[in-house]
What does this fold into?
Amino acid sequence: MKKCLSLIATSIATLMILCASPLPATAQDDPAASLFSLPVDCTLDKDCWLVNYVDVDPSAGALDYQCGTRSYDNHNGTDIAIPDYVSMQSGVNVLAAADGTVLRLRDSVADWPPITDDEDAAKKRADIRAKNQDCGNGVFIEHDNGYTGIYCHMKKDSIAVKVGQKVKRGEILGQVGMSGFTEFPHLHFGIYKDGKTIDPFTRHTSADGCDKPKKPLWDATFPRDDYKLVSFFGGGFKNHVPDFDALAIDISPPDSIAIDSDIFTFWIGMYGVRADDQIKIEIRGPDNRLYLKKMIAQKNDKARQYYFVGKKTANDPLQAGYYGGYVQLTRTGPDGNRFSADYSTTIKVE
It folds into this structure.
């Protein structure tokens, strides 16, 4: 799967030129009322995940506010992804992150289908870029204290507000979609002040660099210390080789695996993997016996990555009981420091 590059700067600039006006307040003196809530009706790391942060590296590179790599060049918002296409179709609400007034919106861009032909997709993405529709369907809101917010990639025909409407924090704006320049369903939420991108994790502009004093704009609905270099958004067992296109549609796991299955596999999905990450994947049996182990060296940076391990059961029959799937990702930074993240889940074999 190609790296997601939801580069929406052109669309945002167009919207701001059309509807933004000078807003004199300063970011350092905001009252508590200016804090923003999580703009998606979900629980982080349970049914939604942070994918990318604001790029605060003014050069051609990309750094997030912690000097990590959970961003890409010129990314000017926070990306919050939902599990899969089924979740998108079922409807996940986008919420106003603060009180404000709707300045502009768009609700006519088609959502991408769950599986697209590469050549056809490339042509359509070029057309989206040419039409300045990278944001897809979105809502642009003037919030309090000089901030404006943009909510992008929303589902076609889901937007529930009108231009000029006053909205309250937590009010439904529409639903998470897959419109515009994107490859999986998520909300891109951008914050601006005086025409500059503001990182909600620090209140600094995107040109200020990383590792700055942090005064988050998020309120208590958003974990203040939720920063992760990598996020596991799903994992589970199958009695066949996993189809990653099918997982993009529906990641829900089976209730159990039949003990006489011919094939036994375990898959994992991750956001934010980087080149040279070392990934250890294990399956362990009911007695904690190692059933299968695989070491993977990540070849390149990927916004979203799937892997699986598995084998035919003829020479190693399944036993009744619970099997565990375990993942450990290890990363060595430029300074030599090592970071690791873990994921585990179980399945009943019967």
Q: What stands out?
A: The two ends are 34 Å apart (CA to CA). The CA atoms of residues 230 and 260 lie 35 Å apart. The chain has a mean pLDDT of 88. Residues 231-349 form a domain with the Immunoglobulin-like fold (CATH 2.60.40).
